[in-house]
Amino acid sequence: MESAAAWMEPSLDVDKLRYEIFSILENKFLFGCDDPKLFLSAGSPPTTPPKASAAGRVRILSIDGGGAASDSILAGFALARLEAFLRKFSGDPAARIADFFDLAAGSGAGGVLAAMLFTRGPDGRPLFSADEAHRLLTKNRSRLATSGEKGLLRKIFRRSGGQAGVFFRGIFGDATLRDTVKPVLIPCYDLASGAPFVFSRADAVETDGYDFLMREVCAATCAAAGAAAVEMRSVDGRTRIRAVGGGLVMSNPTAAAVTHVLNNNLEFPFAAGVENLLVLSLGAGEPEPAGRTSAPPSAADLVRIAGIGQADVVDQAVAMAFGTNRTTSYIRIQGNGVSLARAVDGVEAAEEALAERNVESVLFRGRKVTERTNGEKLKWATEELIGEHDWRRSRVPTVLMKPTMTPRTSCSTTVTTVSSRTSSGSP
Questions:
Q1: Whole-model pTM?
Q2: CA distance 102 to 294
Q3: CA distances from 9 to 6, 216, 367, 425 (A)
Q4: Catalytic residue among 62, 70, 72, 107, which?
Q5: 65 near 145, Cβ under 8 Å?
Q6: Quick check: is 53 catalytic?
Q7: What is the pLDDT of residues 53-106, one digit of tens each?
Q8: Do the Cβ atoms of 359 and 369 come closer than 8 Å?
């Protein structure tokens, strides 16, 4: 019995072997990595993590999202805090989030945030600072949310009647996917083809058939469950999409962003593996628990649960795929106890979420609470981003963006009005 018990007890060597094998499979499945060297090292785990490329790491920002206003609270606040850190420690008071990332991916409310922070304004700089974007969404959330129909984005979409709403038109004018300062990925689900569709700047640069108005892209990614689909066309009218929310199929776009970089040799020629990446993934915060009452969950509750569950699965899969680089190259910020949906003051709730201890995915052991808080991890992300930013200034470019033609349209004057009004704090 004693020997049998000892045989059944998992050993450290077994765990290491499982780790190596699972990392190989995850990299093969998620990112198309097919390096035979990985298989040679399965029996003997490396003593040190693989070194990053001499060209530096590609910096990826990924923002979870959905159709509820609360989905943007944690990410928006975290981005505003991150941008303040970047300005302080880089010595550049005009620094923007887009200056420190090479690609942004966002779904639902996260897609709107990514678009606001990476779309080019009339002066060639991003339309909004992170603080401006966060305060604009938060301010309109409290003004437009109604009983039984929570959420700025859902309200805006329903009011628009299937077309790009006044809100998004006021923000983006006639800007398209090409009018971004860095590559962006924003998903939706296309009912016409019955498959997920990812709006991509890289595709928009290639052909007019994949270039869309940014205001319609945002309406598509945050289209609420149960609402009419967003009918939209590419700028040349050739591609038609009947879109519903990206949060339904890709609540957490991190895996899509990583896959895009590792398989895009034209723009990211030095990204050979996860060791060449630096990923900051921002969660949407903890949802309102659906099981507190005896009443069965509604369809909206089930959609919400499915989105949060899918986001957690992607988080764990990506963390495992990063393997030994997980603790140095993959940073996940997610609330773990503060329900942002019930918060009267979104800023206070987001502060509480950043003060919480961070939750980290661990191979074969689910998730664990770490010693560091979300806020501390955000500061660590700041150091990594500034270090990478300074390091690559005198070296070979890590990213070679596809050349674009002259921007098709300039953002309307309405955009400048909204941005300046937001920065001054007036209603």
A1: 0.77
A2: 47
A3: 5, 56, 21, 61
A4: 107
A5: no
A6: no
A7: 556 899 999 999 855 555 678 899 999 999 999 999 999 999 999 999 999 999
A8: yes
